[in-house]
Design goal:
Elements lengths: L3 E3 L5 E3 L5 H5 L9 H25 L4 H23 L10 H6 L2 H20 L2
Helix pairs in contact: 2-3, 2-5
Length: 125
């Protein structure tokens, strides 16, 4: 028997429904709310931007190669995530390009800030 609960707007949700976090890390999850999946893509991209920024600052990578590698890693990881791990129908979200660019510029900004701070703090003479 599944339990339901009402939120402040009177909408009922099933207790047996998996959380967004659980669905995000489970392969081939069902995404009844498309916005939730787009949120997962957005926030995953932000985390990747920060992680890559720290990595590039520590290595130290600089210049065009670092920027190109960021774009490839960021787009590649998320493409593999939504096409192979989650296996969503990209056309439901406007195509692969729409999913690939979801939150990309914000992620790029976070990457740049993190990369510059780490690189400057460790390798600036």
């Amino acid at each position: 028997m599944s339990r339901t609960k009402s939120d402040k707007n009177g909408n009922t949700t099933s207790k047996s429904e998996a959380s967004v976090w659980t669905r995000a890390i489970t392969a081939n999850s069902e995404w009844p709310d498309k916005e939730e999946f787009l949120d997962v893509i957005y926030w995953s991209r932000q985390a990747i931007g920060i992680i890559v920024g720290v990595g590039w600052g520590l290595i130290p990578l600089k210049g065009f190669i670092a920027l190109l590698l960021f774009f490839l890693v960021n787009a590649g990881v998320l493409y593999v995530y939504f096409s192979n791990f989650q296996q969503v129908d990209e056309e439901e979200y406007g195509g692969a390009w729409e999913l690939t660019k979801e939150g990309f510029m914000t992620s790029f900004a976070g990457f740049l800030v993190t990369w510059i701070i780490i690189y400057s703090g460790l390798h600036f003479d």
